[in-house]
Specification:
2 copies of one chain form a homodimer. By secondary structure, chain A is an alpha+beta fold. Chain A is built from 14 helices and 25 strands.
Chain lengths: 474, 474
């Protein structure tokens, strides 16, 4: 912990790697592109997963588990799907000491295997909708891995549903997207823009892809979650039919939606600062760290008594008492700052004498001396306030860096500084490709929230119905 | 649900497959040996996992996640380990469209990758012990798959620890084993025998393997969990050294321990009967199913009012209200019996008139008419009692089928009937192999709980320190 992280203004990418390493969130594994999620990083992911899992269940979905190994031929049944995923596949060719008759792929996503099974289970309209979810590891061969952001193996949840008609499927994609927005904002304190992806950025096999997009502290965008209306594409490929109320056999409509361990990367890059990680209280493995200060056994006993009292009084708060003797308080302060613990409580012999404790907020260093009982009484509210403060700070940061822009020359000059650029676009792939080639920026989404202002494309001058969000992205 | 399961006395194996299928726990996947865990089966697993996870954490362990892909060369570093697992490996030879320079194996277990990482993290004795756990999918190529019992991919937890010396490592294996015993008995209502495995049955790479063994309703044994003292075998293979307090560099001692989705199979085969599954309340996805009985909308309203009252009064009980209109009550009764719901509550218009409900226990069909408020008041206790009753019933079943035996001729005649046979054994591999060849029975464990009675081996007549448990096993 003696080591400091590289300042983010100096080198954002190095800052990110330093934070991941020094906060002991994750490490590179022996197989290039794979990661080891260390206990502190995994506890963070568990808190995120548990909250999202309860939201998934509360919206009527049930969990299941489908196998990781998928016959190669399954991927080929949906033409766009295989085209999108084939270059990223990991392939098992041998098992049990023998060459396999058919190669197996490690799931890059599970549409194929899941809709194959749905087809066995669905007979009649009464069997619909099917609203399922699974938590699983998935595999996409990554050439430029970044811990949490792009890894060969990652953990995620994938929702998969089947419906009688397009309206129900469309409503489901919106339910999932709204759940993700709420989760990002209320739980991760990450403000997001909701909208639709352009055709270029659509999921391989989807009719429409919706997304939540967030802004990182370097002004770049990160796609934080997607929800896909798959139409009947997979139902036709896997013969997922049902007898409708009118007696006719029809293909079902599917949706799929997912978020992954990538969100850990988002949390790091939305809230962190030059001293390391900053965690929203709702997902922090430790919401409070108590650092006792003492020079003698006698002082230790006095201080620990207060620490124990605080812990006993707040059983629902995740409090970590750092009672390691081999480290000095200042060293501990620095470690827990790097690890982003929202609130630090110092208790020293002088504090005990005065009946007080010292509270320091991680995100703004605000320090307070409070009578012990007041501190205990105020902590639950304080944690709520900290959660809100992080969201508001991130929202202000993003809004300051979100610009309406009408001149492509100006866009080209400014987009490299980071930020979201709201610009008119003519709706063509060609313009989108030109902007990407010129500037590395992509259309993050066609936002739902629009002022209705029509205009002309900043590149081609052709008519445009609404502004879209351009940015460089992860 | 019109279909009935094959009676277990007629064909136990068919009964098992029928229960798994009809209770909608799992199905075979397109890739032979893989399974799809359906929502009802997965909810059961989730309840098991959540309870065990809290026990793992309460004993000081932290969760982490290690990659599924392991370089083939890692397996080869521990000679016995690779010998044990090589025949069962699934191998990735291609990724991202290219042939790999080194083949990767899908983890059959994670000792190699985990101790490789531990070696990076451990410098000094102060870094020990490391007490970690992961929940993951693992892969062992199975030639004779059975759903839950032996599948190519299964879900499990694997604890991995590192210690300064053998005593601490030994104590850790016992902590894990005792945790498994408590979990099996208190949560799954499965009585188990704890003991040590013989050398033949030891984990590949372990110094000692401990286990919990349970008896199924056909009298066969099932290994329900194992805990391994790995000594310094893996530490030496992966250079896991630490500087001890005395300044010397020493190899750490490791332990590993795991239980898997196999436990779902154990629950089915320990508690089930000819009508299907019977679930212990602590892990049942639905602890109570309410079946409303009505013929008119008016009756429906009256009955539902009571159902709502019961549910509102018992927020901590997992109650499922089966309000499907398309099925008759008798059909629903049969379905929930097959699915093993511990307690059924019927509410009909006559019951409402009398202010009562009808409660039926799944495991013994005991039926009771109770005033509504009494039912509400008694349900939590009733569920506790049902949990205990299942454990006691399983214990009585096992004890009746556990026999001391001294004559090998008699053993050979009886062992095919199922049951545990406590017999003296001379401690040699040769005798063990002969018994297996003659009878298909193996030594399930050298039990900790022994009366200290010495004797002579039932096969060789050589001296024996204690009786061991022989049985045919899954």
């Amino acid at each position: 912990m003696a080591q400091k992280v590289t300042p983010m203004t100096q080198d954002f990418s190095k800052w990110y790697n330093d934070v991941v390493k020094m906060a002991e969130l994750a490490e590179h594994a022996p197989v290039k592109g794979c990661m080891v999620i260390r206990p502190y990083g995994y506890a963070l992911w568990e808190n995120m997963r548990d909250k999202l899992d309860s939201m998934i269940k509360a919206t009527g979905h049930v969990n299941a588990y489908f196998p990781m190994l998928i016959p190669e031929s399954f991927l080929q049944k949906e033409a766009e799907h295989v085209e999108g995923f084939a270059p990223e596949l990991a392939i098992v060719t041998h098992g049990g000491g023998k060459k396999l008759e058919e190669n197996l792929v490690l799931r890059p996503t599970s549409e194929t295997i899941i809709y194959h099974m749905f087809a066995k289970w669905v007979m009649s309209y009464r069997d619909l909708p099917i609203l399922m979810n699974q938590w699983a590891n998935v595999f996409r061969w990554e050439m430029r891995p970044r811990l949490f952001l792009r890894t060969l193996e990652f953990l995620w949840q994938e929702g998969h549903t089947a419906h009688r008609n397009e309206e129900e499927a469309e409503a489901e994609t919106q339910t999932a997207l709204e759940m993700y927005r709420e989760f990002a904002e209320d739980t991760l304190a990450i403000p997001v823009i909701t909208g639709e992806k352009t055709e270029t950025e659509r999921f391989a096999g989807a009719v429409r892809t919706y997304c939540i997009e967030a802004m990182m502290r370097d002004g770049k965008a990160l796609q934080a979650g997607t929800s896909h209306m798959l139409g009947q594409n997979f139902a036709k490929a896997f013969d997922l039919q049902f007898q409708d109320q009118d007696g006719e056999n029809k293909y079902a409509y599917n949706t799929s939606w997912g978020v992954s361990t990538r969100l850990v990367g988002a949390v790091i890059m939305v809230h962190g600062d030059d001293d390391g990680l900053i965690l929203p209280p709702k997902i922090a493995p430790h919401q409070i760290v108590i650092v006792p200060i003492y020079r003698s056994d006698e002082e230790r006993a006095l201080v620990m008594e207060v620490a124990d009292k605080v812990r006993a009084a707040l059983p629902d708060v995740r409090i970590h008492l750092d009672d390691r003797d081999q480290y000095k308080p200042g060293w501990k302060f620095a470690e827990w700052e790097q690890k982003g613990v929202p609130l630090r409580m110092e208790i020293g012999p002088k504090d005990v004498a005065k009946g007080q404790v010292v509270l320091t907020q991680r995100h703004d260093r605000e320090k307070e001396f409070l009578p012990i009982d007041d501190a205990i009484a105020q902590i639950p509210t304080k944690l709520d306030d900290l959660q809100k403060a992080l969201l508001e700070r991130a929202r202000a940061f993003r809004d300051e860096r979100t610009h309406k822009i009408d001149s492509y020359d100006e866009f080209k000059k400014r987009v490299g500084d980071g930020g979201f650029y709201l610009a008119h676009w003519d709706g063509t792939k060609e313009t989108e490709a030109k902007v990407k080639a010129d500037t590395k920026a992509t259309i993050r989404c066609i936002p739902f929230d629009t002022d209705g202002e029509e205009g002309v494309c900043m590149v081609s001058g052709k008519p445009s119905k609404q502004r879209v969000v351009f940015a460089r992205a992860y």
